[in-house]
Amino acid sequence: MPYHLDELIDPFPVTVPDGFVVKGPRPKSASWDAYTPLYTSVAQMVFGTENAIMWTGDCSLTLAAVAGLQRRGIDPAVVWMDAHGDFNTPQTTQSGYLGGMPLAMLTQRGEVDLPMHIGLRAVPDERVILAGTRSVDPPEEELLQESRIERVGLDALSTDMLPSGSIFLHVDVDVLDASELPGARFAAPDGASLAQLSGAIERVAQSTRLVAVHLAFTVDPEKQDGERTAAVARGLIEALRRGGFQA
What we know:
Blueprint: E1 3-4, E2 7-8, H1 36-47, E3 52-56, H2 62-71, E4 77-81, H3 102-106, H4 114-117, E5 128-131, H5 138-146, E6 150-152, E7 167-172, H6 194-205, E8 210-216, H7 226-242
Parallel strand pairs: 3-8, 4-5, 4-7, 5-6, 7-8
Antiparallel strand pairs: 1-2
Helix pairs in contact: 1-2, 6-7
């Protein structure tokens, strides 16, 4: 899904393995309601795909992925690897950026109709792990502290601490340090090495309960280092395979 919100990214910054490419229906504005047709389409594709790996340019398409799994009768726990909490709501956001809200939307925070329109049911807080996060807005921090979401470092994330049942993994590549991935749209200092991120992904995959993966390449196509971005993409897929996940 080569989108950064309503912006079509063409060409996409990495070469994606063979699969479906979803370029429409393209959102016509940067508002949650405008995403309903695209997200409904994506949810239906995830519904019909075993062990799906989604490649996108933003984090918000996780909403469609989880809705698609739920249509199959799967209510997954969520492991969210991201430099940012993505836990703002339309009522708390300081920037208005929709890409900073999807984890809050997954847990049904914020007055937004999109989850209802795509059939998304709330993921309980205790079934969410937020890993590697280091950049959180003050109102977002307050919401997280009031929640029952577990927050851990990537190195501390272990198979044993994962919630029971099926697992959905979201990885925003900005969880990496900027030195590992030049051109990140929202780079934050003191991030993970590729080895640290790969190790955490491999441990999640080793649980054997991973049912779908979302890889968000939140990089600026005009500022990225193509070779380095491609190396990161290969590293993430190799980590999934080492852990036993086969798309």
